[in-house]
Design goal:
two-stranded antiparallel ribbon; alpha+beta; 5-stranded mixed β-sheet
Length: 280
């Protein structure tokens, strides 16, 4: 990985962490207790999850640099389709409940500063080393991209609790598009009843343009560049709303009603997309 790309990813990660710290520092107790966009999690629970994540990422990347891409003691790879979110949620909620708001905010700052130090210590060759993830081994570069995804999307989960029109931060968008493709690949749910393939098209003018087809068959899907072939369903939106939609953060009916998503196609095919890719 080129040094400039490494530096940019680290800088964006640091920027997003700093922005979220500033936002949380201005909240009163009622704000911390407000339900977030993550079902069952308060705003404070989400910050606790992000704090724990930074700690885990530091340890995992350090092991990867040393040549260890195996699961840590007490952990194992998840099977295809197996959900891991329930256990993660329980850990975050317990972590939040075990400390005060100021203590948690300080822990968040400390863990992301530590993560920054680990990342800035990486050599160019380290970014391509295999790194453990419960969904399968990744390069360290891809693994860091997931941390940026987590921080950015959960930052939106927090901010949207106070502003229903909140958008995804623009600076991480380019880096997150590649991560989103990986997300689609691990969350796809087969549709055995599908009689013929459906071609979904995303026409996203900016701020980071995307023109992409997602061709769905009964047991698989594939992403393709847009061609002259017509699409069954076309979605038009901004890059940030594209990410919110594919990550299941932006409900279809709400997105259409508020003008954040324009849709062309038969309603049953449009609605099917929201069931094809589900969180894990």
């Amino acid at each position: 990985m080129e040094t400039t790309a490494m530096t940019e990813m680290i800088d964006v990660l640091n920027f997003e962490a700093s922005q979220l710290w500033d936002f949380m520092a201005r909240l009163g107790h009622d704000g911390w207790s407000r339900p977030s966009a993550c079902t069952g999690w308060t705003v404070g629970d989400v910050l606790a999850h992000l704090t724990q994540g930074a700690s885990v990422w530091c340890a995992t990347i350090t092991r990867a640099v040393a040549g260890d891409a195996n699961p840590p003691p007490g952990e194992q790879m998840l099977r295809p389709g197996e959900r891991g979110s329930a256990v993660t949620a329980q850990r975050a909620i317990a972590f939040h409940q075990g400390m005060g708001e100021t203590e948690l905010l300080n822990a968040f700052a400390d863990e992301y500063q530590r993560l920054q130090a680990v990342l800035r210590g990486l050599q160019p060759e380290d970014w391509e080393k295999p790194c453990y993830h419960r969904r399968g081994r990744l390069t360290t570069c891809a693994y860091v991209g997931l941390r940026l995804q987590e921080l950015t999307m959960h930052g939106w989960d927090i901010r949207s609790a106070f502003n229903t029109a909140a958008t995804v931060s623009e600076r991480p968008l380019q880096a997150m598009l590649g991560v989103a493709q990986w997300w689609l690949s691990i969350t796809f749910r087969p549709v055995p009843h599908l009689a013929v393939p459906i071609r979904y098209r995303f026409d996203v003018p900016g701020p980071v343009p995307i023109r992409q087809d997602v061709l769905v068959s009964p047991d698989r899907f594939q992403s393709e560049p847009v061609t002259d072939q017509g699409a069954d369903v076309t979605f038009r939106c901004t890059t940030g709303d594209y990410l919110l939609f594919v990550y299941g953060r932006l409900p279809l009916d709400q997105a259409v009603a508020t003008g954040r998503l324009e849709v062309e196609g038969q309603r049953h095919q449009v609605a099917l997309f929201t069931t094809l890719f589900q969180g894990v």
